[in-house]
C-alpha cells in the first residue's frame, strides 16, 4: 500500500496510508453503551437502539436510569444535530454544529 503523504518529524518518517479494511473500534473496545432512539437511524448499540414510533417506553427508560444510578454508572446525555447528515456531541455548552 502506497503512502498518500510522508512527513519527516524529529528523526522519524511518518507515512499516512489509507486503511483498506477499516473497522469500528466500538466492535472490540467499548467503554460505554449508547442508548438512542430515532425514527430513521440506528444510533444506539444493539439492543439499546430504539425506534421512537415502535419501541420507546418512557417507564422502561426511567427504570434503566434508576438502575444505572444504583450501579453508579456514569450517564452522559448524547446530543445530535440532523441536517443532511447527523453530528453527535456529548456537550451542549459550546454548540459544535455549523448552523442552528
Topology:
Elements: E1 5-9, E2 12-16, E3 36-37, E4 49-50, H1 58-70, E5 79-83, E6 85-89
Parallel strand pairs: 3-4
Antiparallel strand pairs: 1-2, 5-6
What would you say this structure looks like, in words?
By secondary structure, the chain is an alpha+beta fold. It has a domain at 32-100. The protein contains one helix and six strands. It has one helix at residues 58-70; strands at 5-9, 12-16, 36-37, 49-50, 79-83, 85-89. Strand 5 and strand 6 form a beta hairpin. The mean pLDDT is 78.
Name a few traits of the molecule.
100 residues, alpha+beta, 13% helix
Give a short summary of the structure.
Helices cover 13% and strands 24% of the residues. The chain has one helix at residues 58-70, and strands spanning 5-9, 12-16, 36-37, 49-50, 79-83, 85-89.
Roughly what percent helix? Answer: 10-25%
Residue-averaged pLDDT = 78
Beta-strand content bin: 15-25%
- Identify low-pLDDT runs: none
Distance between the termini: 42 Å
Query: Shape from CA axes?
Result: elongated
Order of helices and strands: EEEEHEE
Structural class call reads alpha+beta
Write down how many β-strands occur, each being a DSSP E stretch of 2 or more residues. 6
Radius of gyration from the CA trace? 19 Å
Order of the strands making up the biggest sheet: 1-2
Count helical runs. Answer: 1
| Main sheet summary | 2 strands, antiparallel
